[in-house]
Amino acid sequence: MSTGRPLKVGITCYPSVGGSGVIATTLGIELANRGYEVHFISYDRPFRLPESSPRVYFHPVVINSYGLFKYPDYTLPLSVEMARVSCNHGLDVLHVHYAVPHATAAVLARCMLPVEKQPKIVTTLHGTDTTLLGNDPGYGPAIHHALLQSDAVTTVSSYLKAETRRVLNFDGPMEVIHNFFDPKTPTRSREEVRRELGVSDEILILHSSNLRPMKRIDLLLETLSRVKSREKFKVLILAGGDFSPFLDDVRRLGLEDRVIVRENVLEIEDYLQAADLALYTSESESFCLSILEAMFFECPSVSTAVGGIPEVMEDGVDGILIPFGDPSEIAVLIGVKAFCRLTTVKSAA
Ligand code: GMT
Hints:
Blueprint: E1 8-12, H1 19-33, E2 37-42, E3 56-60, H2 75-89, E4 93-97, H3 102-111, E5 120-125, H4 128-131, H5 140-149, E6 152-155, H6 158-168, E7 175-176, H7 190-197, E8 203-209, H8 217-226, E9 233-239, H9 247-252, E10 259-263, H10 268-274, E11 277-280, H11 289-296, E12 301-304, H12 309-312, E13 319-322, H13 327-348
Parallel strand pairs: 1-2, 1-4, 2-3, 4-5, 5-6, 6-7, 8-9, 8-11, 9-10, 11-12, 12-13
Helix pairs in contact: 2-3, 3-5, 7-10, 8-13
Bound molecules: ligand GMT.
Ligand GMT binds at residues 14, 18-21, 23, 126-128, 156, 179, 210, 212, 214, 284-289.
């Protein structure tokens, strides 16, 4: 595509805390830094999008709830806004992150426009849009159709590409573009952050996620309650969302003095540098951006070896991979291997 000017790109993503929104926002900001004009189109301003930034625009989608509708509709107003922004700003590309409903809305938006105003559509699959919704008969055919209609499809891991072939039976081209991390400089020192958390010489275990069911927070807490290590440890949960539904479990498992929660944190780098070890007990994961983020700060991870995670971290090098399932087994591994070996890796780094 050669227009002789920097491209104008529309980006649609979920604005709430989550890996797909983080990737979409970081990408948009970087494109704008490189001279592209970037238009975010979503029901809310993406949480990592600065209030004002050169060449970056935000177009909110207004959702009405009409009496006749039992459920408010997002797809149609989103597609109308995509078409409006494409037409008024001359967008060259609509890049949608997470297929449902964004890819379908983009295809519909393109149909509303005259041929000369139609943008190319790039769809990036992030995970559950294939692994969960792709398997749902109420969504699968619509996702398959939107992928067929997209000009380019990318997935965040080879695992997700293979799953998209298998689950959706999609045989078109797909490019694997792994998640990336563009770290900011921490605003406080490691010592200051540990002081804020009330952590001194204890080992600080980090878990950072949006707490959705496949993250298996139940297993995470169960695992921590079974760690028999004589080492003292605390657990910092960077929660992208409300952690309160898990507080009963924290109490039941006697972890009140161990667990520290910070919700919807923007300065994750401050906390990443303060951690000694990261822990993930996901049952399904297309990539796991949080492991990559921890890795940048030389924080090794103990994680279940599911989905695309083995593409992110090498067992025994960046941390330890464990089969999904038994909290006792994970706990033993944390106690024996991780506490002894991984913390040596961290302190030697
Ligand atoms: O697919 C999801 O559940 C949503 C998405 C998100 O917004 O957090 O998560 C996925 O996208 C991330 C960024 O590409 C990946 O790092 C996560 O592994 C992936 N989550 C799952 O596959 C469960």
